[in-house]
Amino acid sequence: MAVKKLLHTRLRVNDLERTVKFYETALGLTVSRRHTSPRGAQLVFLQTPNSEEEIEICQMPNSPSVQVQPDLMHLAFEVDDLAAFAAELEHKGIALSDGPTQTGSGSVIAFIDAPEGYEVELIQRAR
After folding, report:
1. What is the pLDDT of residues 1-52, one digit of tens each?
2. For residues 90 and 71, what is the distance between their CA atoms, to the nearest angstrom?
3. Which of 5, 8, 52, 110 could be a cystine partner for 100, CB 3.0 to 4.6 Å?
């Protein structure tokens, strides 16, 4: 027996609205739904273009502050033209934190820093 498919990935954050705004502004993700969990967590689900999987942003009440350790995890998104995407990010005041770097496979990758210390990888696949 195997799982059917990936549905979502959860990121716990300190500032829900700041994080949601970042993903909307930087990556063009859209809010698909919001609600409060039975445990009182504020949840926002973000939809990624051309993908069924969602990103769940979670802010837990009365919990310790989120402290993401360096290089703990990241989300990766494919872009058509990394140079053009990076230029648009720069116009929005968001700088690349690393890259662009060409990989051995011919893809080009770069990173941006999301709120809370999470990292976002941008990938332009080899043509």
Report:
1. 898 999 999 999 999 999 999 999 999 999 999 999 999 999 999 999 999 9
2. 23
3. 110
Cβ atoms of 55 and 98 within 8 Å: the answer is: no
- Residue 53 tokens read as 């999987």
Location of structure tokens 């273009």: 49
Residue 15 falls within a domain, yes or no?
Answer: yes
| Structural domain boundaries enclosing 117 | 8-124
Beta carbons within 10 angstroms of residue 6's beta carbon: 10
Q: Is the dihedral of CA 12, 31, 48, 91 positive or negative?
A: negative
The CATH number linked to 94 is: 3.10.180.10
Helix, strand or coil, per DSSP, at residue 4: coil
Q: Is 43 helix (H, G, I), strand (E, B) or coil?
A: strand
DSSP letter string over 8-41? EEEEE-S-HHHHHHHHHHHH--EEEEEEE-TT--
What three-state secondary structure class fits 89? helix
